[in-house]
Amino acid sequence: MHERAREFAETARDRYAFDPAVREFEAGTKTAKAAADAIGCRVAQIASSIVVTDGEAVAVVVTSGANRLDTDRVADVLGWVDADLADPETVREATGWAIGGVPPFCHASDLPTLLDETLLALDEVWAAAGTPEAVFPVDPERLAELAAAEPAAVAES
Whose C-alpha in 48, 61, 111, 123 is 20 to 30 A from the C-alpha of 98? Predict the structure, then answer.
């Protein structure tokens, strides 16, 4: 197992008493489609962690791979004027992880987290486990609990 994926798994066990069944894919899981193809699930089951900022505050939005993030809706839910995708440096600084491998929890700092409410209709979702090649399955209700995530309508309509 890649060192960063192992670090995620250990942190999840230590902080949350959650033992993720991390799976790694050589081909990578950099896009929701690539992840779904590698795993053998639907694109909707990919729980992508996207880091957003208003220029000062930072938050994580866990969204379904089948949906396109609506930053205006995210800003409204968070009470921000605007929300934009965070740059790679901000992502790493706030979460401790690089873009493409950001898990929905186990971040370097305590960040507000939103969960795409459409994920809650699924039995199982797959999220990044510290690297672009590593993912883990989880019940979306459990994911919301672990990430202390607020379910919200964050997808474009």
Answer: 123
